[in-house]
Specification:
This protein is mostly helical. The chain folds into 2 domains: about 70 residues, no CATH class; about 325 residues, no CATH class. It has 22 helices and no strands. Helix 2 packs parallel to helix 14 and helix 14 crosses helix 17. The longest helix has about 30 residues. The N and C termini lie far apart (about 45 Å).
Length: about 425
């Protein structure tokens, strides 16, 4: 039996048995090498270590710590109050507030589950208290959470940059406009549903209320300006920016909003460390799997197969890849999927002269959609856990509306690269 067959059959078997994805990736790689007998199994252990020994990947735990500090330090509350004062009186206003606040919070943390937990934890009870259906509240919070990986900074974009050698800073710049477009599309869905179901119950805020909400939110709004401005201004790298975001989050939480207590800091760091360890272990397993795939020349075989299907047509290639990624996103964590798939597709993208930044955003959106698609659907699980409702309550027609809107925007962005590349080109990236 060939190493390739052992690799993929054992990977599928482990996943079907419900083994954690990190164990599945590393275990399949180790077993394939062991049965192949051509190289020592110790090489896989080495790859698990060297795969995560990267300066770029240090941004992941830093952004996760920053996200926990922002969530606990009162930042999410201020963002929600500001959005509520500005747009809460619209039909479906509280749902739109959830979407816009998630977009802002995503610009602070780069994490989709953190966005669902921080914003959904506040807004799901608020929407239900205001008479919104539980299904609509749950699906809205779960869906808009993936804006956290589209709007920079983004942990998924950091992973893609490492996998393909693409500038992380340029990917961050490119994610702004697509993130805003997706947020607008979701807001339209929320508005239409709100108007149809009579979800309107908040008086329009006056200028004093808006002014107070804006003043309170200024420290929160300044974080993306400092972090992203520092990256684009050449003051620090994305990894250094992630470290700066921790310092800023501590200062704001401890001394500005004063909702972060010194005695809680260790617990918060421990919580973020546990989440980071899970992601890094997944990436390590993906690196090991990638090593075996490269030894078996699987990327070359996949390239030949895709080119045989698409020929020299970018249109067909992108269509096939979008379908592939939407399916993969249903079953695999985004960072692992990128580390496995992006290097495989890289030769094809280069041969078809596809812009790597454009493709990076397409891939990020695809796998972001996977976060709200069963059976894996990480955001669905988070929304369910913070509300206490079963996951099946999140799977409803409102989630389907958000999915359809997201997929429609995905295909527009796939074949119209201008919204993605506009800012990088204007900034000379």
């Amino acid at each position: 039996m060939s190493t390739s067959v052992v690799l993929f059959s054992t990977l599928v078997l482990f996943l079907a048995m419900g083994a954690p994805i990190a164990y599945s990736l590393a275990g399949a790689s180790l077993l394939a090498v062991f049965l192949g007998g051509e190289i020592s199994s110790m090489v896989i252990v080495q790859r698990l270590f060297t795969g995560t020994d990267s300066f770029t990947l240090m941004a992941i735990p830093f952004f996760m710590i920053a996200g926990v500090l922002m969530e606990t330090g009162g930042v999410s509350k201020r963002l929600i109050k500001l959005c509520g004062a500005l747009i809460g009186s619209l039909p479906g206003g509280l749902a739109i507030v959830t979407i816009v606040a998630s977009a802002f919070f995503g610009a602070l943390t780069g994490s989709s589950p953190a966005t669902v937990a921080a914003i959904g934890g506040i807004m799901i009870p608020e929407m239900m208290k205001a008479g919104y259906s539980e299904e609509f509240a749950l699906s809205t919070s779960a869906s808009c959470g993936y804006l956290g990986v589209i709007i920079p900074p983004s942990i998924v974009m950091v992973t893609y940059g490492l996998a393909t050698g693409t500038s992380v800073g340029t990917l961050f710049i490119a994610g702004f406009i697509p993130g805003i477009i997706i947020a607008l599309a979701m807001s339209v869905v929320a508005y239409v549903v709100g108007k149809k179901n009579g979800f309107v119950n908040k008086q329009r805020a006056g200028l004093p209320e808006i002014g107070k909400a804006l003043r309170d939110a200024i420290p929160a709004l300044m974080m993306p300006v400092i972090i992203l401005g520092g990256i684009y201004g050449g003051i620090f790298t994305p990894t250094e920016a992630a470290a700066v975001s921790i310092l800023y989050g501590l200062l704001v939480g401890l001394f500005v909003y004063r909702e972060l207590k010194p005695k809680d800091i260790f617990k918060l760091f421990l919580r973020a460390g546990e989440s980071s360890a899970k992601v890094m272990f997944i990436l390590a397993g993906a690196m090991a799997l990638g090593f075996v795939m490269n030894r078996e020349m699987i990327p070359i075989k996949v390239t030949e197969a895709i080119l045989a299907i698409s020929g020299d047509s970018k249109f067909i290639f992108l269509l096939v890849v979008n379908i592939l990624l939407l399916i993969v996103g249903c079953f695999m964590e985004a960072n692992a999927a990128i580390m496995i798939i992006a290097p495989v597709l890289l030769p094809v993208m280069q041969q078809l002269d596809i812009n790597l930044v454009h493709f990076g955003i397409i891939m990020t959106v695809n796998l972001g959609i996977g976060m709200i698609t069963p059976p894996l659907g990480m955001n669905l699980v988070v929304a369910s856990s913070i509300s206490g409702a079963p996951v099946r309550k999140v799977l409803n027609r409102y989630l389907a509306y958000y999915l359809l809107a997201s997929i429609a925007i995905l295909y527009i962005l796939t074949y119209w690269e201008a919204p993605i590349l506009l800012l990088p080109r204007l900034l000379g990236r």
